[in-house]
Amino acid sequence: MESLKAYPYWPDPEDPVITKGKKEEVKNIREETDFAVCGSSSFSSMPFNYYAFLTGMDRWLMDMKLNPKFYFGLCDKLLELGTRMQIRWLQEVGEYLDFVSLYDDVGTQQGLMMSHDDYRKFIHPYTKRIIETIKKHTDAKIYRHACGSCYDTIEDFIEVGIDVYHPVDALPPVTQTRQRGEYPPVLFQRYPYRFPYRIPTKPLHIHTHNASQDSCTSTLVVILKDG
Question: For the chain, give me the number of helices (H) and strands (E)?
Fold first, then answer.
């Protein structure tokens, strides 16, 4: 823990570059175009992506089990910094946003990088606090990107207020290794697709897995028509 206190390179949450020109940029998009506006900040990846950037991916995962005191200490520090920067940023742009995006990869093509119990212990509480901060400063929807298969955490995503989960596969699991649960018919059966009233998590993006775009589109047309 002393190494955290002694680390000399923490970012300055009051650095003016964090908000410089952002309000004008986003306001212009909102007023001069018909685009939906999605705000993406690196602050929402603090602690997890930044933990891996600082220590390496292997160290991030091993610290959870081998050095949990250090793990929680570093996560708490990164969350503190990220929250202060996130608030400053949202105070400038929050009123113009339709979505705020979160980016943290916790899955492989076969499933989570860790057990679901470990996800609930080491990851989920921080995601909850990040989203609580965002929702205090904007009415924007929460868009969550997570590479790999996160089917086992969809209930957790819903619990903390995530509105959009990205990505979802177009093709059935027989053609690839991704966990079966994220194939759209399985998702739609478990979470009936009645946006926006009944389902808080909806598929947004398609991985093609080297299939042609036409084959993916045809597959989705059938799925959505039948669903």
Answer: 10, 7
**How many alpha carbons lie under 13 Å from residue 53 in its C-beta half-sphere?**
11
Q: Which residue has the tokens 């897995």?
A: 209
Write out the E strands in 64-166.
99-103, 141-145, 164-166
The pair of structure tokens assigned to 144 is 């969550």
* Mean pLDDT, range 94-111, rounded to an integer: 86
Quote the pLDDT of residue 154: 82
Q: What is the mean pLDDT of the chain?
A: 78
Helix H or strand E segment including 23:
helix 22-32
Q: What are phi and psi of 164, to 5 degrees?
A: -130, 125
Q: Which domains does the chain have, with CATH numbers?
A: 2-166 (3.20.20.210)
